[in-house]
Design goal:
The chain is α/β, with parallel strands linked by helices. The protein contains 20 helices and ten strands. The chain has one domain: Spore Coat Polysaccharide Biosynthesis Protein SpsA, Chain A, CATH 3.90.550. The strands form two sheets. Strands 1, 2, 3, 4, 5, 6, 9 and 10 form an eight-stranded mixed sheet that branches. Helix 11 crosses helix 13, helix 11 crosses helix 16 and helix 14 packs across helix 16. This is Glycosyltransferase family 2 protein.
Length: 511
């Protein structure tokens, strides 16, 4: 390819600059990821999983994978696991819960299959200091919970994420699963580097992420979370992890990601072409969230400038990636023209072969962290190259279809607006009932009171109700004063024995 510069050198200057820029920043990411260090375990931890952690798992169906995942969660000894599902799946999921651990797993239901509604219902039924959201196929190492909780020793940290790896659905990975594994390897490098550089992250992945309960119990958060609209009229169901990450940034909380083997979960991906529908949904969520972060909310610019840069880079990435094929196509065209008429001296096959060798070499180097442990996957590098160009086109398509908010890979996901209407009706009934119960005149003279009837809630809890939540007074979203004093935020302080005050059937929403 360098030999082509003898024909028309100025053509290659801008493209050389683009290539130099992209690989320079990739080397910076590698260097930052290499120097990143996870938060170590404290000698005297403030948070203990058996007292402080509730795991919330929104799902609409589950199989044997759920039992394997649930058993891995229980190794960390959380206080409770809440499975939130729709009413028609209560029986099957209750049976699965009973097979695993009926004492520590409760199954709650909502009337509609809506992930955000399910998550908010789980939040309202939580009484511990820390909430961990998990996909129903996320398999944890035994050390994950202690390493996640270690990050909350810093009272400014509001959310904590983990690194991830793909687990094959069958005996061996399909090409789709390998492509997903390549993407996760690159993502692990990106989140480790951004955490190390400026402490931020574009997204705390919903496959497993932990948050302070006091943040999520805030009525303002719960309302915004279940009434999230794109352009004011398209209600969002997916993209919950993006919303949570933006909320941390906009309300003054910091985040951290534990990128280490001790906190690296395993997750399954679609082993067939439906993986592309997953990627399309994720891409739309990324567009919507990043555009909001950069141009509407704008907190990211001052809180995490490096993350803001990576978001801008992703916005232009489809264009810079497609420049290469366009240039090569132009060169091939010029090579078919005689030299005396302004054509190029190299034959078209030489240009095409040179381009393919360059792509293969650079992409192989980029995937080396994955290939080092899985050398047999090198045969999938050409597929990854083709997927990269497909993904660039998909990103442009996603940009022009942001109004499409469906789940994409799941049949039976309820309409978001209908689910929100049910939530609003339930909250209204609860408020009217409370007002009625608190009015002594209505209690003594119901004939004149005309008070609200005691309508049964559509949100069923099939197991004994938890003790009343201690989260009554919500702190300021900015944790500055609390963090500086070294105390837990209000609603999180407690004493421990006089010591210091102070976790097809492809299942659920993972796909």
């Amino acid at each position: 390819m360098l030999y082509l510069t003898s024909d028309d050198f100025p053509i290659f200057v801008p493209f050389g600059v683009i290539g130099f820029y992209r690989y320079l920043w990739y080397l910076i990411r590698l260097a930052a990821a290499a120097t990143y260090r996870p938060v170590p375990l404290p000698e005297n931890p403030t948070y203990i999983a058996s007292e402080d952690v509730t795991i919330i798992v929104p799902t609409i169906d589950a199989g044997e994978e759920f039992k394997e995942a649930a058993n891995s969660w229980l190794v960390g000894k959380p206080k409770e696991i809440l499975i939130i599902t729709e009413e028609k799946m209560l029986g099957p999921l209750q049976d699965l819960a009973n097979q695993v651990d009926p004492e520590r797993i409760r199954v709650l239901t909502v009337p509609f299959a809506n992930k955000r509604l399910q998550m908010s219902h789980g939040i309202k039924n939580t009484t511990t200091d820390i909430i961990v959201f998990a996909d129903d196929d996320a398999i944890w190492p035994p050390t994950l919970l202690p390493y996640v909780l270690a990050c909350f020793e810093d009272q400014k940290v509001g959310g904590v994420g983990t690194s991830q790896r793909v687990q094959a659905v069958g005996n061996r990975m399909t090409v789709w699963e390998v492509l997903a594994a390549f993407r996760l390897t690159i993502r692990n490098i990106e989140i480790a580097s951004s955490t190390h550089i400026d402490g931020g992250i574009p997204c705390l992945s919903g496959r497993t992420a932990a948050y302070r309960t006091v943040i999520l119990k805030d009525p303002e958060f719960l309302h915004g979370f279940t009434h999230d609209y794109w352009l004011g009229k398209y209600q969002l169901n997916s993209g919950d992890d993006k919303f949570l990450t933006r909320w941390m940034v906009s309300h003054g909380w910091t985040t951290y990601v534990q990128c280490c083997k001790e906190a690296e979960l395993l997750s399954t991906m679609k082993p067939n072409w439906r993986f592309l529908k997953q990627v399309l949904r994720w891409t739309r969520n990324t567009w919507r969230s990043d555009l909001r972060s950069l141009f509407m909310e704008r907190y990211i610019w001052t809180a995490h400038p490096y993350v803001a840069y990576t978001m801008c880079d992703k916005l232009i990435n489809p264009l810079t990636l497609l420049v290469g094929p366009c240039l090569v196509s132009y060169l091939i065209y010029k090579s078919t023209i005689p030299i005396e008429k302004g054509g190029y001296h190299l034959p078209w096959w030489n240009i095409l072969l040179s381009y393919f060798v360059w792509l293969t070499a650079t992409r192989t180097l980029k995937l080396m962290p994955h290939l080092w442990n899985n050398p047999g996957h090198i045969i999938y590098v050409p597929a990854f190259i083709l997927f990269g160009y497909y993904f660039a086109i998909m990103k442009l398509y996603a940009l022009f279809t942001l109004h499409e908010t469906g789940w994409g890979t799941r049949a039976g996901i309820g309409d978001a607006s209908a689910a929100t209407a049910a939530l609003d009706a339930q909250e209204k009934n609860a408020m009217e009932k409370q007002q009625h119960d608190n009015n002594p005149y209505q209690q003594q003279r119901p004939a004149y009171g005309g008070g609200a009837t005691d309508s049964s809630s559509p949100f069923r809890d099939e197991s004994p109700s938890p003790s009343p939540s201690p989260y009554r007074d919500f702190p300021s979203p900015n944790p500055g004063a609390t963090a500086r004093s070294g105390q837990k935020p209000p609603g999180q302080q407690r004493r421990r024995g006089g010591e210091d005050e102070g976790v097809e059937m492809q299942v659920g929403y993972a796909r």
